[in-house]
Specification:
Blueprint (H helix, E strand, L loop, with lengths): L20 H20 L4 E2 H10 L22 H4 L2 H17 L3 E5 L5 H13 L6 E4 L3 H14 L7 E4 L6 E8 L8 E6 L2 E10 L2 E8 L2 H8 L8 E4 L1 H13 E13 L1 H4 L10 E4 L2 E3 L10 E3 L2 E2 H10 L3 E7 H7 L2 H6 L6 H15 L8 E8 L18
Parallel strand pairs: 2-3, 2-5, 3-4, 5-10, 10-14
Antiparallel strand pairs: 1-7, 6-7, 6-9, 7-8, 10-16, 11-12, 11-13, 15-16
Length: about 400
């Protein structure tokens, strides 16, 4: 996941806040776990494994421990945390799909604090098209508890429709929703050399984690060399995200997969000027590009290659129903009507709404870098969000 101020320059490491004693102790535990893995693996582990443990090691990883992550008191702000506008717009897409299917479920994967789930349910109730069930797939016990609290507080009358899952359901019918999920899945990092492609690994030296390189395997070379990148170019690709899309496709009997995240089509993802890749880290609203520090305390993300997601979906039997920017998606989902209904005489509420809309739609905020893609099976009509601007040709 990522804050809205993703444009922070990475040319210099920002000054990071001092760790509390509790944070220092937690970092030492995570570091010890990572060092044990490195030692057991002969001195290095893949960056994929490093990122997986740093984010998801049970009881230790960033998303598995109890650290407050979302909102002003956390490390970053996601669109649903800004207020209800985002969810009210997404609800139009959900409403349309559920109408087409004559009912069905919504499954949110990685529901964060539960803010999106609560506001979606409230808006769908007002539209007269609640899902049969609102399912949440959440592997973090800490976030599960936060979601319970949020939904009980914000949508108590609809709480009985919400059910938590530990794995994807079979023969799912409805909408699978993931907002800022793919960016937090572990990536494979590589470097182009004069001799081909090296994979980047992580070792331990002089009391810190360090980068190491090994020649990439045949599948990595086949994938990367065709991109024509110059020596010295460093970037990533995300096998975990592609595998996840395939697993959703296997589970989806009829309906759609709606993905909202920051990223690019492949031609932009591997732009000649993006020579250090897209890795970003977030700690107390400071953004930087060093994933080897603050183990277990910071978010580690990578932008999404939406071409790869589209290719994976097609290969798994899904159709690409739409692809556009977040700004175009929200405008096509009734954002202007939400703004028009706001009372400018209620200065505080109107100002708060205006600030939400700016952060969600302005090109230098979330509007352009964040993209929305929908993949489906057995869905014939175009869904709201994708009629204003169709960018599928850019994939």
């Amino acid at each position: 996941m990522c804050p809205h101020h993703f444009q922070t320059s990475m040319s210099e490491m920002p000054t990071l806040p001092s760790l509390t004693p509790e944070e220092q102790a937690h970092q030492e535990k995570v570091t010890c776990r990572l060092r044990e893995e490195i030692t057991a693996s002969g001195g290095v582990i893949s960056f994929t494994r490093f990122m997986e443990l740093a984010l998801y090691a049970p009881g230790l990883g960033y998303y598995a421990a109890g650290k407050h992550k979302f909102g002003e008191k956390g490390d970053f702000i996601t669109a649903p945390e800004l207020g209800p506008v985002f969810a009210r717009c997404v609800a139009r897409t959900c409403h349309s799909l559920l109408n087409q299917l004559g009912g069905g479920d919504i499954l949110e994967v990685g529901a964060g604090s539960g803010a999106l789930a609560a506001e979606l349910l409230l808006e769908l109730a007002s539209l007269g098209r609640l899902p049969d069930r609102y399912l949440i797939l959440e592997l973090s016990a800490d976030l599960h508890e936060r979601q319970l609290e949020t939904l009980r507080h914000k949508a108590p009358d609809l709480f009985e429709r919400v059910h938590w899952l530990a794995e994807l359901p079979r023969d799912f019918r409805g909408l699978v929703l993931a907002n800022e999920l793919l960016d937090a899945l572990p990536v494979t990092r590589f470097k182009i050399t004069e001799n081909g492609v090296n994979e980047l690994f992580v070792g331990w030296e002089n009391e810190g984690f360090v980068w190491r390189e090994k020649p990439g395997n045949e599948s990595m070379r086949a994938r990367i060399l065709s991109l024509g990148l110059p020596p010295g170019y460093i970037s990533e690709f995300n096998l975990h995200a592609e595998a996840w899309v395939r697993s959703v496709a296997d589970a989806l009997k009829q309906g759609a997969l709606l993905l909202i995240d920051y990223g690019f089509p492949r031609a932009e993802f591997y732009h000649p000027q993006r020579v250090q890749g897209t890795l970003m880290c977030h700690y107390r609203h400071r953004a930087h590009d060093d994933p080897l520090i603050l183990a277990g305390l910071q978010d580690i993300t990578a932008h999404v290659d939406f071409t790869g997601i589209a290719e994976t979906g097609i290969g798994a039997g899904l159709s690409i129903l739409g692809y556009t920017s977040q700004a175009a998606f929200l405008l096509d989902c009734g954002l202007e009507h939400i703004m028009a209904a706001s009372d400018p005489d209620d200065v505080r509420a109107h100002l708060a709404l205006t600030q939400q809309v700016k952060k969600l739609t302005l090109p230098h905020e979330m509007g352009e870098l964040y993209k929305v893609i929908v993949l489906g099976r057995g869905v014939r009509e175009t869904l709201p969000g994708f009629t204003l601007q169709d960018r599928r040709g850019r994939l």
